[in-house]
Amino acid sequence: MIIKDVHISGFGKLNNADFSFDSGINLICGHNESGKSTLHSFIFHMLFGINRARGKASRLDAYKKYCPWDYPDSFGGSMRIEADGITYLIERSFNASDKSFSITNEATGETSCDEEYLTELLGGISENDFNSTLNIRQSGINAGDDMSELIKRQILNTGSTASTNIDVQYAVRTLNDKKKELASELDNDARKKYYEVQDNIEALRDDLEQRQSEIASSPAYEEAHGEALKQVNTSLNDNSDALKDEYDALTKELADCGFKNVAELAAVDSTHKNLCRMYQTAKSSDEASSQKTTDKEDASVMAGSMYGKERVSIEDYDIKMVDIIKGSIISLFFIISIVCFVCGIKVLGIISLLLALAIAAYTALPFLPGMADYFKKASSDDEAVPAFSKEQAAQELSRLYIEYLGSGDINRENRDRLNAYLSDCKAKFSRLSELGSKIQSGRERLLSNKEAILNAKENNIENAKLFWETDNIQEQLDALEDEKQRLESVLEKNRQINDEIASLDLAINTIKDISSDLYHQNTPSLNSSVSSIFGKITGKSEGELLISDNLNITLNDGKRTIPLHCLSQGTIEQIYMSLRLATADLLLKDSEFPLIIDEAFAMYDNPRLANTFRYIFKEHKGQTFIFSCQNREKLVLEKINIPFNFIKL
Amino acid sequence: MKIIHTGDIHLGCTPDIGAPWARKRQADIWRTFEDIIRLADEKQADLLLICGDLFHRQPQLKQIKAVNQLFASIKDTEIVITAGNHDFLVFGSPYYSFNWSDNVHFIKSPKLTGVELVKLNTVVHGFSYYEQSPADAAGLVGNIICPDDDKRHILMLHGGDDTHIPLNFGALARKGFDYTALAHIHKPELFENLPMAYCGSPEPLDKTERGPHGCIFAELDDKSFNLRFVPLARSAYIYCKIKITPDTTVSSLRNTMAHIIQEKGSHNIFTFTLIGTNSGELVINTEDYADIGNIIAVNDESTPGYDLDAILSEHKNDLIGRFIDTLADSSSDEAAGSTKINALYYGLSALLKSTDRDGGAK
């Protein structure tokens, strides 16, 4: 794009002025306050419009500055530009009351009031871009953040179409804001609280368990159950009733038995036995003793075997044939032995004697135990028994039988009957005493249970307290469990938010990594191009300009690396110029745009000035505007034979 | 013979704790339990089976008393209870030693035991948990034998998953019990043509428990049986998908959700899943939809409407292009993958937005 000419209706101190420009270098000279800056600004604002008090760039508020005092209505003008072979007329009125813009295609006559149209024609170069690159004034040292940001942005956008211009800082800032928003929704105390609640739950649970086992092991727990003890007592009561019934029945029976107690019965029993014995003895001695030998009687007496039992009576002992034979053989052997001794045959005599003794011993053997008893018995219980005669014994026996049996006959039947009766009564008595002791023990147990219940009732207050305490703890536990559940869902939500934050982090880091990569990719080329331009300006081939990551600029003169602030102001200006020109190249790529240099060469020496002009003339595609209050630029340009359009204000 | 079969009531539980409707749900569980008691009364049920987890946790004495009062109000119904893995019995606790109403039979034994109900000529078999996860599960259910006599035999079991007494349902069905009452799985299930069922929890307890909830009403004859599921729950968890477009805003989304809630019943609890393409700028937070109804979650599964290929071709060599390349490669595992996708969309949205800024960027 080339600016062909301008018509200023009213702008600052200029009004109704016209200027025409060349497609190459245009040198505009004038004294101070001649309107150079005004013209410069006019060109700028015709291209980009006046935006009132916006941003740092309009710090001076161009509107206020350039609005003509005398003729505010004429605030504006026109400019003709040429792009792609077509001429366009741009007309603007800057006056706030009738602000207007139009661009007319002079070939087709088409007019548009749309700024976008112009923006496109300008190749997508924004006001900011222009101010940061092609619009060169004197530098401030430390080219400023705008400059470095722009450079960075420029580098990052290498290769993209001009219509998009990614603002990495903005993107990263957006993502960080989102991150902060999400992070504010996190409940950072949740995990700590969760662990606290868990600990509390554990502690309470332990407490509860302890109390519950206290309750379970206390004797009063039985009472709290209720049933078990009651059932035991019930069954005890039932049992004792049965026992008591039996006891009463027995007592009644025994009341009529004729004995007051066991002792009485025992006495009667023993009397009866003795009487029987005596009677028998008497009876047997009366009966025919001819049949029985004294021996036999004694033998039978001796044969009365057991303690305290009836003696064996005579009738029980029968003489057997075999015994007669035995007696005979014994006698025979005795006789034989005597004869032998007498005859002097000792051996035979001894043998016979031995045989006789043996048979005799064999015969006597059954009687031996009886003999021992007999001798024992002789000294025992028979003493107390009065020696009744048969009649006396019979009398007593009969009396007994009548008393207890109702019949006085002395015979075996009655005897047995009485014995049976006596033993029956004995059994009943012993059963009675058994029952008595059972009932007694039952009563004792009942009593002790009742005591236990009574004690339990006293302990129950203690127990009730324990129960109340456990219930209380249970209630606290419930509340804590609810809290734990709630915290779990909070922690889950936290986890989800943290996942989102992780995604955001990944995005941010990826962007930063890539931009760093790209930067490092392109920085060498920027480095080299700035170096090369600087080299051309200084005319030196050695010395390399280095731009670090954070845009620290240093000069390596082959011997040492010198930071920016150690260099002379002139060199700094030239470095600045080189940077500007290099990034302008990056920005423009192949398109054309006017380069404006306003009073930037004050510090240059002539040779470097000449080099700069040569560079610009050779390398810069498009128009160049040089504003100066000096004559130097004119002289140098003439000297190095570079054609230029001279405008004098 | 008429039986009401229930379990997993979880009295005392507060579902969705932290949500505004949580306390009401806690109360709903009690009300529905009262409904079950009322049902037993109306139907004049002979037997009410509560197969474990009557309470959500170890109950307090006042809770037990409240339940006992309900039980006492239906004196003509025999009630058999066992303790489950949530309300397992602990020595020395009020639950263990409580003196229940006469019509209540609490099978406290840790081993399978029968309690005879003479009036009904029935024996109910069951056991109670004494810990969360019984040590000898196989032993407990390994050798169940149904006694062969002229009484009715009913089996109550609380279990059926890997950690709480795994069950072989086929084998159980063949044991010959007149009815097998199962609980622990919160989803009600009737086994086809078998006198066996899972009663499910009467009220759903968390958002995964979708579908109807209630109790089982069983009628047993000498030769036949008839099982019926009775829906009782006051609220249900409902899942809905909403399709969104890049034009969808928070307001339009709210309207859609409100409409769905009204249609399906505002007493229910909703989970919405957003599908489709979003504008990249749609951000919806809990506060934005809390007032419309009971919405427990809004899951955003929509994707930003970026034509990645087009963007890639336009930005082949610059930062955006390289950004897409770095993050869009399908890689490793799912978790990392979803982080990458989200990062891609977040970053792309921010980067593209930065190019649209007027004034500054250009």
Explain what the structure shows.
The complex is a heterodimer of chains A (649) and B (362). Chain A contains 19 helices and 14 strands. Chain A has 649 residues and is α/β, with parallel strands linked by helices. Chain B is α/β, with parallel strands linked by helices and 362 residues long. Chain B folds into two domains: 2-231, Purple Acid Phosphatase, chain A, domain 2; 237-356, no CATH class. Chains A and B meet through α6, α7, α8 and α16 of A and α9 and α10 of B.
List the helices and strands and how they pair.
The complex is a heterodimer of chains A (649) and B (362).
Chain A: E1 2-11, E2 14-20, E3 25-29, H1 36-48, H2 62-66, E4 76-83, E5 86-93, E6 100-105, E7 111-112, H3 115-121, H4 127-132, E8 135-136, H5 144-156, H6 168-185, H7 190-217, H8 220-225, H9 227-255, H10 262-286, H11 294-303, H12 321-343, H13 346-364, H14 367-377, H15 390-405, H16 412-538, E9 544-547, E10 553-556, E11 561-563, H17 569-588, E12 595-598, H18 606-619, E13 624-628, H19 632-639, E14 644-648
Parallel strand pairs in A: 3-13, 3-14, 8-12, 12-13
Antiparallel strand pairs in A: 1-2, 1-4, 4-5, 5-6, 6-7, 9-10, 10-11
Helix pairs in contact in A: 6-16, 7-16, 9-16, 10-15, 10-16, 11-14, 12-13, 16-17, 16-18, 18-19
Chain B: E1 2-6, H1 22-42, E2 47-51, H2 61-72, E3 78-82, H3 94-97, E4 104-106, E5 113-117, E6 122-126, H4 137-142, E7 152-158, H5 169-173, E8 179-183, E9 189-190, E10 196-198, E11 214-220, E12 225-231, E13 237-244, H6 250-264, E14 269-278, H7 286-289, E15 295-300, E16 303-304, H8 308-314, H9 319-328, H10 334-356
Parallel strand pairs in B: 1-2, 2-3, 3-4, 6-7, 7-8, 8-10, 13-14, 14-15, 14-16
Antiparallel strand pairs in B: 1-11, 5-6, 9-10, 11-12
Helix pairs in contact in B: 8-9, 9-10
